[in-house]
Amino acid sequence: MTLRRIATLALAAVIPAAAQNAVPRTPDGHPDFSGVWTNKNITPFERPRELAGKEFFTPQEAAQYEKTHQFNVDDREGIKGTDADVTSAYNTFWWDPGTHVAKTRRTSVVIDPPDGRIPALTQERQKQLREVAEVRRRRCEKPGCELENNGQPGPADGPEDRPLMERCLSFNNAAPMVHSAYNNNYEIVQTPGFVGIDVEMVHQMRRIPIDGSPHLPANVREWVGDSRGHWEGDTLVIDTTNFNDQTSFHGSDQNLHLIERLTRLDADTILYRFTVDDPTAFTKPWTGEIPFVKSDGLLYEYACHEGNEGMRGILSAARADEKKAAQASK
Amino acid sequence: MSAALPVKWLVVAVACAATLFAQSSAATLPRTADGKPDLNGIWQAMNTADWDLQAHGSEPGPVSSLGAIGAIPPGEGLVEGGAIPYLPTAAAQQKENRKHRWTADPEIKCFMPGVPRATYLPYPFQIVQGGNTILMTYAYAGAVRTIRMGNPAKSPSDTWMGWSVGHWDGDTLVVDVTSFNDQTWFDRAGDFHSDALHVIERYTPRGPDILDYEATIEDPKVFSRPWKISMPLYRHVEKNAHLLEYQCIPYAEDVLYGNLRHRQGGSK
User: Fold this and answer.
1) Which ipTM value was assigned to this complex?
2) Looking at the domain covering B30-260, what would its CATH class be?
C-alpha cells in the first residue's frame, strides 16, 4: 500500500498535466493502449555501483553511456574456436536490444528500492536456490553437460534439464514485460472489458479481463500467471498470481504476486511499472519501470518450438560427449 | 376468392414476421462502438472435425489401455459435397499421412495448428476485437493470430498460422489467410495442404452466442478445386468464462527428443 502510494506520487511528478489530457481514449473514456509497442532499451536493469546515488542521467551522460555500452557481438575475434563462439553464435542481425537508454533517462530499470538494486532474497529462498545449483553442479562432474546461455555448463540428460528459453517456454518477457536481447515487441488490443497483449517473444499471450472477476483457483497454475485488470483513474492496473513453479523472475517463486501499472504518457509512450511482491522469495517488494514506445512495425510469428533444432543439437552433443568418455575409459 | 384471401394475408403476415425477426435479430446483435458485430468472447466448435473433417464412424484409438477415453468418436462430415477433392497424387499422400498419423500429426508435437484447424480443435479460442486489429488467441499451444483489417502489408515469410487480412462484408467478418508453410494438417486423419494454401474464412453472427463459421480452402498443388467447410461456433456463456493456457510443449518433448535422452542405467 505504501509502495503503491509512493509509485503514484512519483508518477505524478513525471507526467505534465497537459500530456495526461492529450492521450487517445477509447469510446468508454479510458486511455487507449492499442497498438504495437517496443520496450527495447540498454538501461542497466540494476543501477551499476559506479552510478550509486545517481537516479537520472543528464542528456550528455546518457549519450556518453550509449556510446560506451553498445551491444556489439559481431566482434568475435577473442572467442574464435572456443565453445562460447558456437553456443552464442548470433550476430547483430539476430540481436535487437536497442541502442538507447530508456527515454526517462533513469540509470536503472529498478526504481524502488531507491538505490536501484533488487532486494536480497530471503534466507530460505537462497538456501533453496543454492541446493538446486549444487545438484546441477554435481551432475556436471560427469560428461554430458552443455553450456547454457549464462556460459555455465548444465546437465542435458533430457529437455527438462535445460533452461526454459532453450525449450521455447519462456524468455521472461511476458509477465512482467521486460525487454531482453531481441523481439521486444508487444501488440495491445483493448476492448471495453478486456485487454489482450500479444508478446512477440515465443508468442506468449497476456489475457487480462477487466471485469471484476476473481483469480483462478489456487491449484491452477499458468506460465504467464493469471491476470486481472482494473482501472485506477487513467492507469490500467494488472494483478497477476497463479504462476507455476518453473518460471522465475530474478529469483521469484510460484508465490509471485505481480502488480503492473500502465499509464499512457502521450501519443508515443506508455509508462510501464511492475512491482514484484513475493514474500517467500524477496525480503521486500521491489519495483521496476520501463517506458514502452510506439512502434510503426508489425508483430511477426515467432515459431520457436516448431523450429527447435537447438534442443536436438544440445542433447545430441551431450550424448556424443558421454560416448566419447565411455570409449576413453575402456 | 373468399378462400384465397386468408392465404394471401397469411403470406403477407409471414413475410412481415420474417422481416421483423430478421430486423430484431440484427438489431439485438451486440455491437462495438464502431457499429460492427461484437465478436469478443470465448468460442468453441462442438464437433469431431479435428478427428476427421469427413464423415467417420467410431474407431479404436492408438492406446488400447486408455479404453473408451482413447478411442475415436464418430462424426458427421463438415465438407460441403462430402469429400475433399484431392488430386490423385495428393490422395495417395493423404493415405500415407493417415497410416502414420499417430507419429506424424503435428498436433502430437504441440506445433501451431494452422488455419482453419485452430478453429475446430477440441479447445476454446478467444476473439479480442479492436478496430484495426483483431487478435485470435487459442488455448492449444498458445497459438495466436493477428487479423489486420484492410492492411496491405505482405508477410515476409511463410508461417504456421498464416497471414490474416480482414474486412467486413455487412455483418460478416471475412478473413483472407495466405503465406502458410506446408507443415500443418487439417485434422488427425492426415488431411493436408501445401504452401500454396489460401483460406478465406467467414464469421457470421447468427445471434449473440452463435457464429456461423465457413472456410473456403484453395490449394492448386493439392486439390482439384476449392472446397468449403462450415460449422457453428458456440460462445462460452459460463459466468467468468476464461481462456486457460494449454502450454503443451512439456507434453510433447518426449515425443520429439525422447531418442536423445540419456539412456536408462547409464552413468547418471
Assistant:
1) 0.91
2) mainly beta
